[in-house]
Amino acid sequence: MSSWGGSIMTLLQRIQAREARVVVVGAGYVGLPLAVEVAAAGFRTTAYDKSADKVASIGRGVSYVNDVPSSKLEPLVRAGTLASSSDPESLASADVIIICVPTPLNKTKDPDNSFILDAAEMIAARMKRPQLVVLESTTFPGFTREVLLPRFVQAGRKPDLDFFLAFSPERVDPGNPKYFTHNTPKVLGGISPQSLEVARAMYACFIETLVPVSSTDSAEMVKLLENTFRAVNIGLVNEVAIMCARLHLDTWEVIQAAATKPFGFMPFYPGPGLGGHCIPIDPLYLSWKLKTLKYHARFITLADEINSAMPEFIEVMVADALNARKKAVRGSRILICGVTYKRNIDDVRESPALDIIELLQRRGAEVAYSDAHAPILRFGEQEMHSVPIEEADRFDCVVITTDHEDVDYATLCERAQLVVDTRNATRAVRAKYAAKIVSL
Ligand code: SAJ
Prior knowledge:
Elements: H1 6-16, E1 21-25, H2 31-40, E2 44-48, H3 52-59, H4 70-78, E3 82-85, E4 96-99, H5 114-126, E5 131-135, H6 143-154, E6 163-167, E7 186-190, H7 193-203, E8 210-212, H8 216-247, H9 251-258, H10 282-292, H11 298-323, E9 333-337, H12 352-362, E10 366-370, E11 376-379, E12 382-385, E13 397-400, H13 409-415, E14 419-421, E15 437-439
Parallel strand pairs: 1-2, 1-4, 2-3, 4-5, 5-6, 7-8, 9-10, 9-13, 13-14, 14-15
Antiparallel strand pairs: 6-7, 11-12
Helix pairs in contact: 1-7, 8-10, 8-11, 10-11, 11-12
Bound molecules: ligand SAJ.
């Protein structure tokens, strides 16, 4: 390391002395917890976001991310260690910039890296001093090296002199009671040994376990393997549920019995589809990239097909259950119980419950929902309001699409006329109410 230039030594010293100024670009469910951890490690930190509401909320010490208590945020803001801003000029004085912006898919299910590129333009235009730039947003293998690096070089910045560049995948698991930013092992890849070294020095200040890999491409691929593993296995178990329906087998009994195998098996569970902003989307970043290399990532495509078809499978389950009671979907009153994309959180992004609502509405049903975690639901042209679960008896069918743990499913089954359970939420009372429960 001794042969490395002055700029890296200066930056390393500023990091080690906690004098480095850090800007986290994107103060969402990844960026805000990260900014809080960095500030708590003693760095003067700015959470940058275009949203004036987010900036104002942080400025008041009020958290809008469930995993970040205001009690942890407020003292950092009051002490001046953590600030918030929507002014790009705040990037100019930064020694370290960590990008945590969304990477969605566009309408044709192709990667949309526009948020990262907007951040890169902002950074490149203001780069005045040696800066470490770390991309945490999920993207395809090669993006940091092929797309991000040239943006800075084209702005006249020299790698490993004017800037150091690394990729480190975010591993935030919303709602996880055990793993947080500081105790989740962090994978790091640099465009060079120097860049990796600076990134390691920075993350070592607030992350317990670092996992350096040989390149940014490798680090990008690690993330995509993690989430493709989930999407493919969820697709497999959803197809197992479809097979068990045809075999008249209890899917949940089969999976739970298989899960007793102490080696060589890992349980996944069927559901109404794949929600969230990671698992349905990240694998398609990988398959898109491989398509450009003339390779068809068949597992990813197949899992996406199966997972995306689950809302229709549930729609038919509901229609068949009503039919067995001489009712049509058209004209029936249906209550969707739980609309967030997974239990015990308030996030409805990509939630399959929204697809199921639209499918049942299209068949002429009168659909309402009940979810205390999501009091108001806005999607498409619709705005719906959660109804109390106690009104379940007023509906011809209740569909459990999210199994929040704060719902009393025994009382729900007592009151409801018919329950379609897509999450095994009624397992404890299935025998007692067998006549009115239809389970995935
Ligand atoms: N799902 C199933 N069956 C399963 C597991 C999940 O249908 O067996 C569904 C969920 O209901 C949800 C979707 O898949 O709709 C995604 O669920 P998830 O548990 O993967 O939850 P996420 O989207 O919050 O995933 C995050 C991911 N974190 C990041 O990508 C940074 C993922 O990598 C984590 O492994 C996951 O949390 C986790 O461990 O819970």
